[in-house]
Amino acid sequence: xxxxxxxxxxxxxxxxxxxxxxxxxxxxxxxxxxxxxxxxxxxxxxxxxxxxxxxxxxxxxxxxxxxxxxxxxxxxxxxxxxxxxxxxxxxxxxxxxxxxxxxxxxxxxxxxxxxxxxxxxxxxxxxxxxxxxxxxxxxxxxxxxxxxxxxxxxxxxxxxxxxxxxxxxxxxxxxxxxxxxxxxxxxxxxxxxxxxxxxxxxxxxxxxxxxxxxxxxxxxxxxxxxxxxxxxxxxxxxxxxxxxxxxxxxxxxxxxxxxxxxxxxxxxxxxxxxxxxxxxxxxxxxxxxxxxxxxxxxxxxxxxxxxxxxxxxxxxxxxxxxxxxxxxxxxxxxxxxxxxxxxxxxxxxxxxxxxxx
Length: 357
Description:
Elements: H1 3-20, H2 32-74, H3 85-110, H4 114-134, H5 136-151, E1 159-162, E2 165-172, E3 176-180, E4 186-190, H6 191-196, E5 199-201, E6 207-216, H7 222-235, E7 246-252, E8 257-266, H8 272-289, H9 336-346
Antiparallel strand pairs: 1-2, 1-5, 2-3, 3-4, 6-8, 7-8
Helix pairs in contact: 1-2, 2-3, 7-8
């Protein structure tokens, strides 16, 4: 016998006589005997349904206890496809919820409340649809987190640039990616923004090219100036030979011929900016020693007063002396990324949660 339908009929039989007594022409009154009979029949039916209810409760308890170990067994094949921690956690919880809901369905089915279970499932789906529209941005961010954890376009401690922000990856949670820029600031970027924008990874390939420009006069031997620049670059221990360095003529200015020096360094060990600074200092000293002129932009001077008594006096500037201080910090060409990683490890974590990559 359907327990749900029986309950409905019994409640209807109990209420109908009471309502009928309020009418102007009562048909019959509810006696204590009828009430006792209805209660007795209800208890009798409940006693008959007690084994099924007990079995349903046992089914819920068993499904609840087996949900966790079974979910671990079911996601084992997923480990051969992806190593994403977030994907494993989400899939395991999904299987656990499905197993527990199966136990609830068994309980309602044994209790004769199948229609009630279908109504609950339908209401749950409608509520889920409403919540999906209400929290669309959160859902988009969560899905982006899962895709990032599966595809892994970068790793922890990589130097990346996303949406115009450059920094070292410190943490990637289910909500945001935390970068530490080269000013020491923590930047939290939502994972949806990270996934939808261009990701520039500066650490995936440790070889990084740097360049700078220097202008020389047109009266110099251009080929000899290029050879001097190549010699200075090749003698620097931070510059790697493969790919080779280049000294190219970039443009012809009004007063100078502009040379651009391209060089390659191992960005995991050396800073491109620091190496470029050291090369420029060495190249300027070399050009000055070899009498390679580096003139400023050409200027035209017009003298309005040409009287004879106003003779021009040439003043000789005192020779410049070279003063060298013992400052080893100018020779530091180490990578700044290592300093930022160390600062990130020592700083306070701005967001709770474990890494998903």
